[in-house]
Amino acid sequence: MASLTKIMLIGNLGSDPEMRFTPSGTPVTSFSIATNRVYTAPDGERKQETEWFRVTAWRKQAESCNQFLTKGKLVYVEGSLRTRTWEDRDGQRRTTLEVNADRVLFLDRQAVAPLPSEEFPADIAEEVEPEDLPF
User: Fold this and answer.
1) Residue burial 82-118, b: 16+ Cβ < 10 Å; e: rest
2) CATH number reported for the structural domain that contains residue 52 in this entry
3) Closest CA to 54 of 25, 28, 23, 91
4) Is residue 110 a part of any domain in this protein?
5) Quick one: pLDDT at residue 8?
6) Cα gap 111→109, rounded to integer Å
7) 35 falls within a domain
């Protein structure tokens, strides 16, 4: 029987991505994203919960994430969950759940270039009447 592990997240980066290379030279980039859930508690108070996810991207995607993502940017991540175990500095065995990214989409729009203020004087906007608009 087939099985599937799939996770889809939309959230903001909690810090700048960190890129490193495996011993064989494969690029890998890690970053964390925060997702928020807003709900109303039984007492009527609006509450917000934040969940943090550690994401790992590989190869070309790792390079793109490292180049274009920064803290606070909005991203869509699609991938699978992976459990990773390691030993910390004190010799304690630690386990974490990570998202192994298959797809990362950058959702924040990049400004092409700000218009100089001389190209669109503020007084022009005040002179335009609603009936002057073509739509």
Assistant:
1) eeeeeeeeeeeeeeeebbbbeebeeeeeeeeeeeeee
2) 2.40.50.140
3) 28
4) yes
5) 97
6) 6
7) yes
